[in-house]
Structures are given as C-alpha cells and as structure tokens.
Amino acid sequence: MLPRRPTSADVAARAGVSRTTVSFVLNGRDGAISPATRQRVIDAASQLGYHPHAPARQLAGGSSQTIGLVLCQSPEQVAGDALLADTLRGMTAAARLAGFRVIVEAVEPKGGRYADLLRSGRTDGLVVSGPRVDDPELRGIVSDRFPVVLQGSLPGLDVTSVDVDNRAGARGAVEHLISLGHRRIGCITNAPLAYTAASERLDGYRAALREANIEPSPDWIVEAAFDAQSGHRAMARLLAAGEFDAVFVASDVVAFGAIGALRAAGRRVPDDISIVGFDDIPLAAFLDPPLTTVRLPAYELGHAAGTALVDRIGHPGPPRRTLLATELVVRSSTGPPRSSTIARHAH
Amino acid sequence: MLPRRPTSADVAARAGVSRTTVSFVLNGRDGAISPATRQRVIDAASQLGYHPHAPARQLAGGSSQTIGLVLCQSPEQVAGDALLADTLRGMTAAARLAGFRVIVEAVEPKGGRYADLLRSGRTDGLVVSGPRVDDPELRGIVSDRFPVVLQGSLPGLDVTSVDVDNRAGARGAVEHLISLGHRRIGCITNAPLAYTAASERLDGYRAALREANIEPSPDWIVEAAFDAQSGHRAMARLLAAGEFDAVFVASDVVAFGAIGALRAAGRRVPDDISIVGFDDIPLAAFLDPPLTTVRLPAYELGHAAGTALVDRIGHPGPPRRTLLATELVVRSSTGPPRSSTIARHAH
DNA sequence: ACGCGTTACTGACGCGGGTTAGTGTGGAGG
DNA sequence: CCTCCACACTAACCCGCGTCAGTAACGCGT
Q1: A234, A198 in Cβ contact below 8 A?
Q2: In sequence order, which residues have a C-beta less than 8 Å from that of residue A12 and are 6 or more positions away?
Q3: Nearest residue to C15 via alpha carbon and C1'
Q4: Chain A residues touching residue B77 (CB < 8 angstroms)
Q5: CB atoms A106 and B117 under 8 Å
Q6: How far apart are CA A25 and CA A39, in angstroms?
Q7: Which of A215, A315, B214, B296 has its CB surrounded by the most CB atoms within 10 Å?
Q8: How would DSSP label each residue in B58-127?
C-alpha cells in the first residue's frame, strides 16, 4: 500500500515547526517567519511531495477557485459548434490567470439542472452559455446574487453578459453585399429566432437593407437550425421562392449546406449568387469557393467571459454588458452581381 | 446581506433532530429512522433550500466526485478538433451517470502541469487526451497509482486506455481504394508521426498496400499537421512527386486543404483522383464532393473514456485497453480510377 | 421483576488547513 | 536591573459533514 498523501502536519513534523508555521510559509504570510525556518519548511514540503488538499482549503477558506461553464445546448448544437473548443480554451486561459479551474457542464436546453454546482459550493461562479429565455434555474441563482456571466444575451434579465456584436456583424456583412451592387438579398438564419443571436443577426440584416431602401419580402428570410443539413433545406426553399443576387447565411456551418444546395441546383458561387457566412470557422477559408464571412472572435469571447466572471467573484458590482466586435473577412464567395458583370464586360 | 447558506445543523434544528439524523436521512442510511422523522427532515431541508456543501462532504468522505479531462494539445490542434465537443459531451454524460462532474484542463503539450488536479484532491481521476510520449507528469501519477485513463495510446506505458482502432480504420479506407482499382495511392498523415494516432493510421495504410502487393515509395507519404493549411501544402508536395490514382488523407480537416490544392491544380475529385478522409467531421458530408471517410465515434470515445475512468475509481484493477471500431462511410470523393473509367467507356 | 434485544436516535470525533489570539524569548532603552 | 516591545512562533478553534460508538426507551419472554 502506498503511504497516504502527506498533510501539512507531516510537513510541520519534518521541519520541526508547527502546522501554523507551515501554513504561513506556504501561503506567503511570511512576515514573521525567519528565512532559515522558511527554507526548512519549503524543503520538507518538497521532499514529501506535499500538495495542499484543495477541498480542505476551500472548507476553511471559503473559495473553491473554480468556475463553471454551463452549455445549454442540444446535442446537434454542440456537435456543430466548431468554435466551442476555442471558446473553452479562452475561458480556461482566463481562469488560470486568476488561479481558477473550469468545470464544464452540458445540460439539455430545457430542464437541465446546473444551479447545484453553485449552491453546493463546487464553483464560485458560472458562465452560462446560450440559455433559453425561460430558463428556470437562471433567475434563481441571479436573484440569489451568485456571480453569473451570461455568454450571449437574454433581454429582460439584468445580468453581466459577454457577447459578440451580432447585429453590427450581420449588418456589415449585408452592407458588403449591397456595396457590391446586390439588391435582392436573402437571409438564412443560424437558428430559430427564439435564440437571441439568431434574431440579432436577422436584425442586422434588416437594418442594412432598410438603410439602402430595400424592402425585403417575408419570403426572403428562411430559418435554419445549426447544422449544414438545415442550411441545405433552407436554401432549397429560398430558391423556390424566387431569384436572388446574394444570400446572407448567419452561420458558416449552415452556409456549407446552403452552398451544397446551390451546387445541386446548378448555381455557381459567386458568379450566379454571392454568399456571406458568419463565424469564420477554421474550414471557411477552405470551402469552394473560400467563404466570405464575419469573424467571430471565439477565443476572445471565452477569455472575456472568464475574465468578467473572475472579476465579478472578486469584487461584486452592478451588471456590465460587454460586446465584442466582429470583423468582415472577404474571400471569394462574394462578387458583383451577374448583371453588373455583364455590364462591365460590355463596357 | 443575504442569509448565509444553510448547513445541516440548520436543518437539524428546524426538524428538531440531531445533525446525525439529518445526515442519515439525506444519504439514504434510513434503516433506523422512522418515516415521520424522515419526512420532517426532508421538509425542513427543502424549506431551507439546503444543499450539502460539496467540499465539506469531500473532506469528510474522501471523494471529490469529479474527474478531470486533460487536453494536451496545442492551440491549433484544439481549434481544429471538430470532434472535441462531441467527445466532451460523451464524457460528461458518462460522468453524470455515476454522479461525477468534469473539470477540463487545457495544457500546452510540453511542460503543462496538470498532476496537481489529482494530487490536490480536486479530482478523483483523470482522462488524459493526447499526451506526448515524453510527458513528465504522466509517469508520476501512473506510478503513484492514481486512476488515469489515456485517450489515445502511448506505447510502453501500461495504463488503461481508450482509443479508436486507427490502424484498422486506415486499412479499411485504403482497401476501399484498392478494391476500386487504384494502385498508386498516396498518403497524407494527420499529424507528425510522433503522435501515435498518426503513425497507427500510416501503419494501416502500409498494411493494406502490402496485402495488395503494392510497394509504396517513400515519396508517396507526406506529413501534415492538424489543419487544412498543412493539408494544402502536403498535397502540393505529393503532386510534385508524381501522379496518383488516389490519396488517403488521415484527417478530414487536412483533406479539406488537400482537396483545395487539387482544385487549384485543376484536378477533379474523384474523376482524376480519389480521396478518402478520416474522422467524419460533421461537415464532411457537405464538402464538394461529399467526402468518403472513416467515421470516428467521438461521442462514444468520450463516453467510453469516462466510463472506464469512473469504473477504475470504483474498483481499481489491472490496466485495460479498449479499442473502438470505426466505420467506412462511402460518399462521392472516391470512384474508379480514370484508366478503368476509360476502359469502361471503350467497352 | 429482571434481563435482553430492538428501535430510534444522538454525542463526539475526525477529515486538512486557515486564522486569531496568544506565548516565550532576546535585545534595546531607561 | 527592570521594562517594554518586536520577533518568531504556536495552541486552539473553526469551516460543514460523515460516521462510529454509544444511549435511552420500549417491548417481550420468563
């Protein structure tokens, strides 16, 4: 049998001091400890391979040095979320800076329980990603003043949140299409409109058209849902609804499917129709044609959420809302409309 | 100020019993508790909104009910890992079945520290994903008998591991090419060969060729590294090395880049050259052409790793090695070689 | 009336470490 | 020589909960 893990008492015995002294040395309260003693303690600890017992420390000290990431996403969403890995990386990096770890909890969008993470003291705070408006748990923990950061946004709930500026991003994408000369511009959403990100992006699309005095008919807008399959179907419906110069697809993954549908219908991108995506997933640049899209700073998003949460745990304060900027990445899936191409050739 | 969180003593007082009784009721040791008392305790707990303090429970009981997932991956790898989300989902699901949570720790491949998660008692076990052969931490925690499950495999280390059968999967993919009539079959690896998954897949490729009495020249094999960009470069090198009927690309993401290079060189897939990928990422079916690939059961992999670890925490035993089967998914990026097509036309 | 289980509960200790209120010692100042 | 204080350290309590070893009350057989 292995010797049981060493405790601070073992270190104390070995160094010939009290447990209190060990605690002082190892936690930097060295003010009153002589250098010689301090060194003895440090040596003893390292010889024994001493690691403080996190739960005991938490019990005594109160903080778990852990934050939770709650993913309120259905399986299809998670699988399709090409940026989750990056967001997670950003969040763990931010957490580590403050000495925190990250617990990940994937819950079903409805009825998933996660508040226990907080109430049981396993985590000091939570980043909640993509909750529904009617999330029952969220209101409870917010009104109990637990530190929570929303990744995404939820109208009508006054919580600290971090999100990307979906509206401005979408608007920029559509303005790009308009500036190329397109007028009949369709829109395929990234998700049902109950998801705020989806409705915000749609909003940006509408704003850009309005500004250009273009009135979109209702059948210019089709809802898709997360995966390429749904994008394929959505584009098929759009094609059935009429002719388009361009389509703004509010998700690269969905755009993959949409472009597949165009290919199947014999339309060429961008010669016959221009496509702008959203997210800039790693493969967007390698699609045929390379996809013009709106870059969503996934790592930064995770990092910002983690930082905001850790910050909030340290010094509670009023809710703050952070919006990260997106960036339009122009590749080859957008170009001038066919008519203007012809005009240019005729010229 | 909010009232502080209720403790089991508060519940005991409210129910008019001792703390011990509360503990017995709430932990199912009801054998000696009368139904009336038991109900009083349960009511009191729910009225107070009592949640046991996890760290205190762990300190008393010994188990953290938490497992760790350690990702030994560089940023590019993580970003490119389209299946990570699914694997993570599988692992958290497996953990939840046993009442465990999951802490995720992303560490740099070299020098990243994660053993502290175990030594500090924050987790009861670790799933280590993709460590290097020379990982310094791993040997330590293994020889200290901590419960560890390797996701992937590491020759020469006797640890419980869960992996996909890379060799058989690659072999099946190449056999598929051979059965179509291809002979000159190149290979682009998914990663440097220091990664066992990469060398195993290469092994499978070699085995299939050997069985068909094909001797690959060294310049049929080119190393890539995780992302599409590297696949693009690798394919360019392959094209410079000679003509090929087909190429086995040991990663779908890399294959995306490789196909891009073929397109740039004016070769058509599968008419001029067939391509088989590996992983079956969600977008593989939506590539142009839809990619024939080897399905890697990501969710199941995570689930198996989680289950194996939890199992091992419960009842330690000798290391076990689990290999999950892959499945060849034939789509449209593979077809008969040009010569045979011509032959068929001539016929 | 007494012993002897059961039944239904409780007292007290321990998990490992943070922390507060001390304790003893030596040296400087008066 | 005594006082006083900074110095270097320690005893003891606390965090919240699990759990073992009781204990009191009660019923039953003789």
Answers
A1: no
A2: A18, A19, A21, A22, A41
A3: B60
A4: none
A5: no
A6: 9
A7: B296
A8: HHHHS---EEEEEEE--HHHHHH-TTHHHHHHHHHHHHHHTT-EEEEEEE-TTT---THHHHTTS-SEEE
Check residue B280 and give left, alpha or beta (phi > 0: left; psi -120 to 50: alpha): left
Record the tokens describing residue B304, joined without a space.
């198996």
Tell me the pLDDT tens digit for each residue of B172-198: 999 999 999 999 999 999 999 988 899
| Chain segment B2-55, per-residue pLDDT in tens | 567 899 999 999 999 999 999 999 988 877 888 888 899 999 999 999 999 999
Contacts of B63 (CB under 8 A, 6+ apart): B124, B313
Q: Which two tokens stand for residue A294?
A: 């709106």
Per-residue pLDDT of B122-178, as tens digits, reads 999 999 998 777 788 888 888 888 999 999 888 888 899 999 999 999 999 999 999
Which residue carries 């560490």 as its tokens?
A: B107
Cite the beta strand spans of chain A per DSSP E: 66-72, 101-107, 125-129, 148-151, 160-164, 185-188, 221-222, 246-249, 274-276, 293-295, 321-324, 327-329
Q: Which amino acid is at A30?
A: D
* Residues B116, B120, B123: CA angle, nearest 5 degrees: 85
User: Which single residue is written with the structure tokens 């971090």?
Assistant: A162
Other CB atoms within 10 A of residue B23 CB: 17
* Positions of strand D less than 7 angstroms from a protein CB: 7-12, 14-21
Is pLDDT of A1 > 50?
no
Name the residue among A5, A55, A232 with its Cβ closest to that of B55. A55
Q: How would you classify the pairing of strands B246-249 and B185-188?
A: parallel
| Helix, strand or coil, per DSSP, at residue A224 | coil
The pair of three-digit structure tokens given for residue B118, joined into one six-digit string:
């175990």
Å between B34 CA and C2 C1'? 29
**Which of A79, A92, A283 is nearest residue B228 as measured by Cβ atoms?**
A283
CA of A161 to C1' of C15 (A): 39
Q: What is the pLDDT of residue B345?
A: 44
The percent of residues above 90 in pLDDT, for chain B, comes to 74
Whether residue A55 and residue B59 make contact (CB cut-off 8 A), yes or no, is yes
pLDDT in tens, B49-98: 999 999 999 999 878 999 999 998 887 777 667 788 889 999 999 999 99
Determine contact, residues A187/A248, Cβ cutoff 8 Å. Answer: yes
Q: Which of A347, A346, A297 is nearest to A322 (CA)?
A: A297
Neighbours of A50 (CB within 10 A): 21
Extract the tokens encoding A138: 């969220």
Nearest-5° Cα angle at A117, A111 to A118: 110
Please name the residue of chain A whose CA is at the shortest distance from the CA of residue B89. A106
Q: How many CB atoms lie within 10 A of CB B14?
A: 18
A7 is near strand D: CB distance < 7 Å: no
* Residue-level pLDDT at A345: 44
